[in-house]
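Renewal narrative, Specific Aim 1. Our central claim is that a sequence can be written position by position from structural information alone. The example that follows is taken directly from our test logs and has not been curated for this report. It begins with the structure tokens describing the chain, in the order in which they were read.
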């Protein structure tokens, strides 16, 4: 039963077939307002596919089933229309916006372009505003710096629903801690977060998690119980994969 007052996002009987291959099958999920959720599971389970389908990316919109955001159906909406509702997807690879100044990049998606927001956003991700305000988003930035500046832009954006696909991919330990800081800060300000991950450390930032296997939700529960997946205690299912294969 749908409950728009409790659930920010509701997925009902969602299936996706792409190029003749079934990728998602009969997915049902309730994403509670103000919580950090995670989707875990083996490689090829459909985790990133699920995030791209929620965002409505090209090639991921010809679905069966429904997606509701704040009680309203969004499965027919474009990516831009979903973004305007406050849904944001952060990919594994930092976005490329060559030549844009760091302040312009951070403020690009911010609804409230208030004084001090650039500096505040940079500090949250552990970057010194005095050093980065005059920089451009170009090849002089390292991959880790790009990732942090992209996170600063997400923080400035204050999305209603933040989808993060493998947020720890290709970043150093220091950057991972700043990613976790951003998640905590946004949660405190009312953002709902959905983490797509196969990292135990990332899962530990969540309140609740779903286990996705072979395109199906096979288990869900509080984060501490779902940690069992990483100790090899996987829910029995028909998939050939197992946690030991998927762990980094």
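The sequence written for that structure reads:
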């Amino acid at each position: 039963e749908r409950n728009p007052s409790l659930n920010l996002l509701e997925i009902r009987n969602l299936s996706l077939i792409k190029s003749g291959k079934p990728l998602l099958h009969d997915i049902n999920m309730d994403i509670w307002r103000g919580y950090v959720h995670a989707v875990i599971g083996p490689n090829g389970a459909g985790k990133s596919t699920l995030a791209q389908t929620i965002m409505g990316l090209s090639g991921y919109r010809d679905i069966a089933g429904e997606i509701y955001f704040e009680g309203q159906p969004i499965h027919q909406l474009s990516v831009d229309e979903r973004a305007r509702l406050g849904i944001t997807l952060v990919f594994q690879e930092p976005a490329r916006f060559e030549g844009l100044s760091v302040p312009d990049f951070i403020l690009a998606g911010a609804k409230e372009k208030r004084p001090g927001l650039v500096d505040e956003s940079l500090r949250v991700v552990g970057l010194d505003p005095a050093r980065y305000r005059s920089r451009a988003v170009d090849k002089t930035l390292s991959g880790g710096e790009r990732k942090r500046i992209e996170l600063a832009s997400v923080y400035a954006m204050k999305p209603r629903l933040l989808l993060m696909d493998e947020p720890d991919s290709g970043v150093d330990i220091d950057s991972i801690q700043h990613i976790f800081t951003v998640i905590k800060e946004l949660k405190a300000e009312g953002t709902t977060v959905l983490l797509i991950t196969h990292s135990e450390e990332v899962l530990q930032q969540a309140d609740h998690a779903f286990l996705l296997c072979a395109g199906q939700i096979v288990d869900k529960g509080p984060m501490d119980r779902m940690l069992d997946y990483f100790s090899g205690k996987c829910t029995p299912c028909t998939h050939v994969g197992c946690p030991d294969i998927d762990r980094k």
